[in-house]
Structure formats: C-alpha cells, structure tokens
Amino acid sequence: MTQSIEVVSDVVCPWCFIGKRRLEKALVLLDRRDIEVRWTAFELNPGMPKEGMDRAAYRTRKFGSIEYSRQLEARVIAAGAEEGIDFQFDRIARTPNTFDAHRLIWLAGQQGAQDAVVESLFRAYFIDAEDVGSRAVLDRIARGKGLDFDDHAGAAEVRMEGARARAQAVDGVPAFFVDGVPLVSGAQHPELLAARLVPALAQCPVDGENCR
Predict the structure, then answer these.
(1) The pLDDT of residue 207
(2) Selection from 111, 169, 165, 173 nearest residue 142 by Cα
(3) Can you name the CATH fold of 4-158+171-200?
(4) Would you call 207 exposed, middle or buried from its count of C-beta atoms within 10 A (0-12, 13-18, 19+)?
(5) What whole-number distance in Å separates Cα of residue 138 and Cα of residue 96?
C-alpha cells in the first residue's frame, strides 16, 4: 500500500511554496520517490470577497503597517532564494479569494495532476504576480494540464477539507500529515523534515515557518 504525505496549504501562503521545495528535497534525501503527496485545502482568508482585495490594504490591515509587512516579506524572500524561488511581492496587486483555486487543486487530484497544478498556482501568484482568484487564470492553468474545470467541481470537498483541518487543530500552514497522523507544522528545512519523516514512514535513517 502506497504511503502518503498530506500537505495542508493555501496558494497565497509563501511558506507553503517554500515548504513544497523543502519537502521535495527531503524525499530525495530519503530516496522515497514512491511516496504520494496530496495537497488539501486551508483558506487563510475564508471571508475574503469573491473578487479579492487590494494587497497593500490587506497587508496593512493584517500586520498594522506596510513597513512591517515588508520586513516579514524580506525574511520570506531570503528563505525563498535558498530554495530557488524568486518571490515578486512588489508586483502582486491583489490578495485573491482562493476557494476556486482549491477546487482546481482538488480536481487535479482526481486526475493525477495535483502536484503540477499546485506548482503552477504558486508560480502564477508569487513569481508571475497573477490573480489566482481570476477564473481566466484558473482556466488557463487547468487547460494546460488537460483538465476540464467547471463551476461546481470540488466545492463540497474543499469545504470538508478545510473543516477537517481545523478539527485537527490546524491553525497555520503548511501542515504535514503522514497517513493521517500529524507530522510537523511550518516550512521546516529539508534535513529536519527528513528526520521527522524517517520514523513516520518506518524508513531506516540515511546519512547525510508558518503562515497564519
């Protein structure tokens, strides 16, 4: 039976993008390419208007000032650079509603394209500064992966995933689970993540942050 790692995340969480890179490195360290990675929904802003909102206004409201927001972003930029991610925060105009993006991720999971879609969504938002709440952007990503994305697929499932995460006491992302058992929260470094995965995956040892 294939073991699975569940990553609870949101597409507007930069630490989730960093966590994706670090998980990929951890699995290489463990030589565990057989592991299935599943991405499940957590909306950091479940009350976000459907059309999203101005990002500078959102960040100011959330963190008290745009100056403090930029200090936090500088830390993320430095961590992202270590993982080969060139965050383009200054170019991002809007903070989107991510419900439809999560629906697309769910749909991709039914058709074996989930990791590729998650990667595309992260890149679209954080590198290309696109609005991943826009149906046009989501449709383009879906078509690029051979998916037929309609207006209803995955809505109930995304709501259930979010409710389950909160019932499991998830209050920040990324959060990692192995076969349904909590493993770690936050974008841990690959070596630490690999060390935590060893007992969880019953794997012999090898040599060798958190959005709220």
Answers:
(1) 42
(2) 111
(3) Glutaredoxin (3.40.30)
(4) exposed
(5) 12
**pLDDT level of residue 199 (50, 70, 90 thresholds):** very high
- Report, as an integer, the average pLDDT of 110-124: 97
CA gap 197, 190 in Å, rounded: 10
Question: What H or E segment, with its residue span, contains residue 161?
Answer: helix 155-167
The token pair at 156 is 């109930």
- pLDDT tens digit string along 135-168? 999 999 999 999 999 888 999 999 999 999 999 9
CB atoms within 10 A of CB 40: 24
Domains in the chain: boundaries? 4-158+171-200
Return the number of other C-beta atoms located less than 10 Å from residue 205's C-beta: 10
Q: Give which of 6, 2, 8 is closest to 37, Cα–Cα.
A: 6
Do 208 and 25 form a contact (C-beta atoms < 8 A)? no
pTM of the model: 0.93
> SS3 for 31-91, per residue?
CCCCCEEEEEECCCCCCCCCCCEEHHHHHHHHHCCHHHHHHHHHHHHHHHHHCCCCCCHHH
